[in-house]
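The data are passed on as follows:
___
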Amino acid sequence: MALNLMAGRTFNDITQYPVFPWIISDYTSETLDLTDHNIYRDLSKPVGALNEDRLAMLIERYNELDGFPEEERFLYGSHYSSPGVVLHYMLRQEPFTSMHIALQSGRFDCPDRLFFDVGGCWRSCLSSTSDVKELIPEFFTCPEIFLNTNRFPLGETQNKQPVDNVILPPWSNGSAHEFIRIQRLALESDYVSNNLHHWIDLIFGYKQRGPASSLAHNVFHYLSYEGSVDIDKITDEIQRKAIEGHIQNFGQTPSQLIAKEHPSRSRADDVFGLFSKSLGYDRLQCHTPSKQFGGHRSTEADGAVISLHAFGDTVFAIHSDLTICSYKL
């Protein structure tokens, strides 16, 4: 989130909404082993390059644009973050519901195009030449976006399947809260810690623009990039409105923050030094209560301390694996 905020992303503007990555690639298994690298998405590639066959088609189309100036050629006509993407995911929660209806001229979109299946959404992002969207923070924080608690009449698909709550992968056991819990654990996993810097390079870093972006197959429409056009210098009113409309509706790339390769994040169990600086270990007695959100036996705390709270002679620590520990002075 810190990078999103520094790059100008905000929850107050759906044209510049924070962007998070797809992390998990397995939406069919009954259970997930978060230590298995095969369940994760390749974070070194943009969504559009995850499917080699689709990428070959996009490269062929890119080469057919040889009549355009080099800076105006692009691989992806759509974007990984746009108002449409935000409203797609947030359909079931106001005020996004009303914004979606306004965008669709006073009604809900065709049920087959609504967000109703996480696995189906992932498969679309792997196969469609016009679908390269990433995720939003709510996929890691807000189970309500998957629940039709407002009982909106979303219709049914062409296969006569009612569109109601979002269909979740089997490993979430039908629980939106469990889905969020596993998403958060996956985001904090060793695999993601060791590879997230590649995704940061694509979205916020040196692979966002220039020769590095071409080599990484990470080239979007030129109007999506900050500073690509000076609106104030456009004298033709029709052209000006067309460009403004494109920028507002078809996605904006975050501000580029880093001009060189981002370092890898440290492993969760390598980032423990907080207590050694403030309290002596010989003064502490450690008790590890059951993990939050249920479903797991209590074990020793694993991972970095992400939050500290002191009450009287007791210090409470929240670890990155959501374990809460108390330390008596």
Remarks:
- The domain at 2-249 is CATH 1.10.1540.10 (Neurobeachin; Chain: A, domain 1).
- The chain has ten helices and four strands.
